[in-house]
Amino acid sequence: MPHHFHHLRRRPAALGLAAVLTLTLSGCGAQVAGTDSAKAGGGHYPVTVENCGEKKTYRKAPQRVVTNDVGITEIMFALGLEKQMAGFVMPDDKGDLTSVPWKDGYNRTKWLSKKGINKELVLDARADLVFAGWNYGFDEGEGFTPAELAKVGVGSYLLSESCRNGRGTARGVMAPLDALYTDLRNLGRIFGVEDRAEALVATFRKQVAEAEGKALKGADRPRVFLYDDGRDKPFTSGAYAGPHDIITRAGGDHVMKDLKDSWATVGWETVVARDPEVIVINDYGDTSAEQKRKFLKSYPPLANVSAVKNDRIVVLDYVDLVESPRNPAAVASLAEDLRRLSGR
């Protein structure tokens, strides 16, 4: 299974949405800063949260967090927690970060590595917490796991999208947007910024509800397939990765909704049999979105698939599709794309 992190290519989200979100979020921050800081004082700790089925107790707010990958890093920035970070790990092929709603977080936080996360880097940064996930940095094969970090006295918080569900390495224990809201609320408690977390969740829920209100309904909903990468076999998203909720709430019928995993490989024959009417390309990696589009359009087994035949292929960014604070904006932009492609 590919590691998303290693092939990250990112471009800014639609400027309109980014600008709207900036205003909304700065508004939230302004309203709740007072209550948050008061709460962060005495009496708040210890706090216990449930993370991937495990209860974790925090005696105080971590002060030197290291994050891995872009969505995870932006969750911290969206909560205004850059001062509690020792830095982030992310490839340098990151697109333009000047138009993202939390660009200040990038400006104020140390970029620790463009190569990948490992134990040495974490110890060098004097980290007290690593926020990463299975296949988002944590990897038994590399010997970099929460258990290994615990041996050297470093805590871990796992991205909820990446929780393993007990069937081998299959991932996913809750609906994708619930995973985002769960992490925001858990981190709100861990860092004593619950009000900020609740304000964000409320803003995101409203944004998603507004998009759903305008989305295609019933028989008008097109069948949608998410294409991540892969030639011989496609890598795609199941019920527990961000695209499932993004596609569904944007007015699409996600053709891989029965796949009880987050990101996984399927066969082309399944895609052909389910005949998607729209394909969403996940834009990242060494293969550009344009190259992916050309492959889909020239690959003989797909010639009669509706989306390919009618050239209904749209592109979303990696950071829009993995668990991140950009998911709600992605619902809105995809809802618009699906209406446009369906001529409604």
Report on the structure:
The chain is α/β, with parallel strands linked by helices. The chain has 2 domains: 14-207, Nitrogenase molybdenum iron protein domain (Rossmann fold, 3-Layer(aba) Sandwich), CATH 3.40.50; 216-341, Rossmann fold, CATH 3.40.50.1980. It is 40% helix and 17% strand. The protein is built from 13 helices and 14 strands. The chain has helices at 15-39, 70-78, 103-108, 119-124, 146-151, 176-190, 194-214, 242-249, 268-274, 289-298, 306-309, 318-321, 327-341; strands at 47-51, 54-58, 65-68, 85-89, 111-113, 129-134, 137-138, 155-158, 223-227, 235-237, 253-254, 263-265, 278-283, 313-317. Strand 4, helix 3 and strand 5 form a beta-alpha-beta unit.
